[in-house]
Amino acid sequence: xxxxxxxxxxxxxxxxxxxxxxxxxxxxxxxxxxxxxxxxxxxxxxxxxxxxxxxxxxxxxxxxxxxxxxxxxxxxxxxxxx
Length: 82
Prior knowledge:
- It is built from three helices and three strands.
- The protein is an alpha+beta fold.
- Strands 1-2-3 form a three-stranded antiparallel sheet, with no helix packed on it.
- α2 (43-53) crosses α3.
- It starts with 7 loop residues before the first strand and ends in an 8-residue tail after the last helix.
- The model has no long low-confidence stretch (mean pLDDT 93).
């Protein structure tokens, strides 16, 4: 999954979608996930990094990750997967 190319992301976690004019604010972990995605990390690699960095189990992280990806999809911030 990739963030759309036209989405602007600041270092503080502010997202701007120029297509819709909407802006969003991410917490530290959301920003880390997006940065890992931008680096081309796979879902298992993101899971491993986050569970090693934060006090969270792999199962807990997977739930939060899927919820986060669902929100990104809902707000049309991800590239279409074809």
